[in-house]
């Protein structure tokens, strides 16, 4: 029986850059938050729950339902590049929805200029991440299969998403830090993790675009 790779051909390097972006952002986030205490294994469960929940839910919604919906609509409207349009549209939605906070949109007393920069960086960061994850789906051999086999195309992005969150939030949570209720904190130091990870994710998208493997769906 032929074994189908979970990671589509040509996308190993982009995934590597995604994880480097997560690690760089995570180290910078810990520094920006002032989390310098000893590592606390007691917070590992919280970290694992956060990473696994966001990975499964967000990949099902954005790289599953929304991406495939965008692809179907682009093909119905006979767009010249339906795959690219579907990737960009679903990733932009993913990026903008990351601005929706659990509490207030902007932290109380925040510097609005800094918060505006954070908003732009967060949307760009999440959009770039979404583009790499969407590419994993459309280039997966499972994507061309009928239901329910096509859902296996979400395995690679779900695992990559979970690893990203583990690396990005791990240094903060495992040293006793807490996640802010919004990404728009107004703290100028918080621009560093967003900026560092965004720059590296640009590289991941660039490498993805140059991958030789053509989309399979």
Automatic annotation (TrEMBL):
It comes from the Bacteria. It comes from Adlercreutzia mucosicola. GO terms for molecular function: endopeptidase activity; metallopeptidase activity. The keyword Aminoacyl-tRNA synthetase does not apply. GO terms for biological process: CAAX-box protein maturation; proteolysis. Keywords: Hydrolase, Membrane, Metalloprotease, Protease, Transmembrane, Transmembrane helix. This is CPBP family intramembrane metalloprotease. Residues 47-166 form the CAAX prenyl protease 2/Lysostaphin resistance protein A-like domain. InterPro entries: Rce1/LyrA-like_dom. The keyword Protease applies. The chain crosses the membrane at residues 12-32, 47-71, 83-100, 120-138, 150-171, 191-209.
